[in-house]
Amino acid sequence: MAKTALKRPGSPIGRKGPRKANPAYKRRAREPWTAADVSKLKQLAKGNTPTGVMSIKLQRPVTAIRSKAQREGISLRPVNRSPYNRRSKAAKRR
């Protein structure tokens, strides 16, 4: 009897098909951005949405979202965080 291929639970060895069978987003690599996609990106960035959630909502990889935001001049940095991790004056008095 011939030995079957070694199959490990987290490894692509011995597995047929794509590496990730059911990704959280459809592969839209190199698909052009529409005006609706860009406006949705601006809306999500304004609402402090994390890039991981944006990738699922826009069905694009996180790196594509970051690069498009940089090209469009959209800041993905949360606006509700204080700079340099400073505490408020009330918290320092305690």
Structure in words:
There is one protein chain. This protein is mainly α and 94 residues long. The protein has helices at 35-46, 51-58, 62-72, 89-93. The longest helix has 12 residues, at 35-46. The chain is globular and about 50 Å long. The mean pLDDT is 77.
Count of helical stretches: 4
- The portion of residues assigned to helices is 25-40%
Into which percentage range does the β-strand content fall?
A: under 5%
Mean pLDDT value? 77
Q: Tell me about the largest β-sheet.
A: none
The helix-and-strand class reads: mainly alpha
H/E element sequence: HHHH
Could you say which overall geometry the principal axes of the C-alpha atoms support? globular
Query: What's the quaternary structure here?
Result: single chain
End-to-end Cα distance = 74 Å
- Which stretches are poorly predicted, pLDDT < 50 over at least 5 residues? none
Number of strand elements? 0
What is the alpha-carbon Rg in Å? Answer: 21 Å
Region (Disordered): 1-32, 66-94
Biased composition (Basic residues): 84-94
Notable characteristics:
94 residues; mainly alpha; 4 helices
What is the compact description of this entry?
With 94 residues, the protein is an all-alpha fold. It contains four helices and no strands.
